[in-house]
Amino acid sequence: MDDGGVIVDVPRVDLLLAERLACKKARRYEDADRIRAELKSMGIEVFDKTKQWKARGKGHMDPSTGHDYSRDPRDGGPVPQGTHALIARRLQLKMSGKYPEADATREELRALGVEVNDRAKLWRVVKDDRYYPKADEPPLKRRRA
C-alpha cells in the first residue's frame, strides 16, 4: 500500500487471507485473529460468512478481480484482456483521490471498448457506440453526455 494505506495490495491481502484460513483450519484461532487485526490495520474488513472482503468502507471486493464492480447483466460481449486490472487500478486511484490518473485509466478502458458506470458499480463492453447484448436482447445505444 501507499498514500496512507489507501491503495490495496490485493496479492498481499490474498496471502493473508489464505494464511488466516489455514490457521482457522488448524484451530490456531489466536493466530487467525492476529491476521484479521493486521488486515484491519490495512483498511480491510473480512466477511467470513460470504467469503468476501472490502477496503476502506467501500463495496465488497471480489478477490478474483480486485474491485467491487459487476458486469452489467445485459452485457454479452467478450471481455478484453486487462479489463479487471484496469478497473481495479482506477478504483484504487479514485479511493486515493488521484482523479486525473483515474480519468486517464477510464480512457484506457474506453480504448479497450469498456464503459464503466460508477453510480451503478457496473461495467460493460461496447463497440461502435452500441453495447454487446446477450443473444436474446437487442443492442442498447450508449447515452451521450
From TrEMBL:
<dbReference type="GO" id="GO:0006418">
    <property type="term" value="P:tRNA aminoacylation for protein translation"/>
</dbReference>
<dbReference type="InterPro" id="IPR009080">
    <property type="entry name" value="tRNAsynth_Ia_anticodon-bd"/>
</dbReference>
<protein>
    <recommendedName>
        <fullName>Cysteinyl-tRNA ligase anticodon binding domain-containing protein</fullName>
    </recommendedName>
</protein>
<feature type="domain" description="Cysteinyl-tRNA ligase anticodon binding">
    <location>
        <begin position="79"/>
        <end position="121"/>
    </location>
</feature>
<dbReference type="InterPro" id="IPR056411">
    <property type="entry name" value="CysS_C"/>
</dbReference>
<feature type="region of interest" description="Disordered">
    <location>
        <begin position="53"/>
        <end position="82"/>
    </location>
</feature>
<dbReference type="GO" id="GO:0004812">
    <property type="term" value="F:aminoacyl-tRNA ligase activity"/>
</dbReference>
<dbReference type="GO" id="GO:0005524">
    <property type="term" value="F:ATP binding"/>
</dbReference>
<dbReference type="Pfam" id="PF23493">
    <property type="entry name" value="CysS_C"/>
</dbReference>
